[in-house]
């Protein structure tokens, strides 16, 4: 696909870039360019790489009023040989299309999605950290039509940002503490829980703030109907190792179908683990932790990768998991995944794409 590239007239100087890449954190440092395509008159324009700059939006743009917005998160890695590998971009493209459908937005064809992401990576290739870091790509789409009636907009912007990143959590690889919220829920049956739309994250912020007030890194949501079944964290999926079986909540339409989640399910089966996608309730989690049947738990997502859960806090108390230290299954699965992502292990499933 033809991509127009408009180079930034004042690129970040190499020494400043090197300084920014030393400790990028998560989501704070951005590259010099972005990719954009517009939906007008029922079709997409070709993608365009432009300098990263503020957007000019009409204050009546539908996204500002009715939150017609979706996004994705994906990563590119620099290998030891200096190649650039993008992890499972076609899975993100398909999920983006499903999110678009749920939010009554036009679908971005996979070819356009990939062309935009890959052109941005090539243009800002010097921003990809080596070693532990990666380049986080943030494709998103917003409704730009200036119109205050409540109906799907007729104009949209598809945009991709790139961000060199390090660890998602401040504590790095240290096990995280999670807060089980009984006050707030994330998604109900028939709602937008399976779509990666900004509204889901906006709705999670108050629960995340509650988690932080209780000294936790993340919130764990329970289901909206019974306040009983574990669903997912504020922005990541969750796994439990019980009696040697790896359990993760099923995809019933209220949780996000994580790319990391699906990759770990495959890797866990390859490791010979018994894997179950099934409902797991909070009372059983407490009992399994108390009896020692629960030996590990971890959160996972593109941004967080795999983060061991060392402690769970809730309104009536707190309990540790595996003495608060990361267990061997969590470490093995993380290493298997990141070795493939960074080109340090064979990739039998063809998950990485050279850019
Ligand atoms: C991701 O893991 O890519 C996400 O979108 C989660 C977000 C909370 C950073």
Automatic annotation (TrEMBL):
Cofactor(s) recorded for this entry are: pyridoxal 5'-phosphate
In the UniProt record, does the keyword Nucleus occur?
no
| Cross-referenced InterPro entries | Aminotrans_IV, Aminotrans_IV_CS, Aminotransferase-like, B_amino_transII, BCAT-like_C, BCAT-like_N, BCAT_family
What CDD domains does the record tag this protein with? BCAT_beta_family
**Protein's pathway:** Amino-acid biosynthesis; L-leucine biosynthesis; L-leucine from 3-methyl-2-oxobutanoate: step 4/4; Amino-acid biosynthesis; L-valine biosynthesis; L-valine from pyruvate: step 4/4; Amino-acid biosynthesis; L-isoleucine biosynthesis; L-isoleucine from 2-oxobutanoate: step 4/4
Q: Which residues carry this modification: N6-(pyridoxal phosphate)lysine?
A: 196
Q: Does the keyword Membrane apply?
A: no
EC primary class? transferase
Q: Which Gene3D superfamilies match?
A: 3.30.470.10, D-amino Acid Aminotransferase, subunit A, domain 2 (3.20.10.10)
The alphabetized UniProt keywords are: Amino-acid biosynthesis, Aminotransferase, Branched-chain amino acid biosynthesis, Pyridoxal phosphate, Transferase
Q: Name one GO biological process term.
A: L-leucine biosynthetic process
EC number, as in UniProt: 2.6.1.42
Give the protein's biological function. Acts on leucine, isoleucine and valine.
Stated family: Belongs to the class-IV pyridoxal-phosphate-dependent aminotransferase family.
Q: What is this protein called?
A: Branched-chain-amino-acid aminotransferase
State the organism named in the record: Phenylobacterium zucineum (strain HLK1)
Gene that produces this protein = ilvE
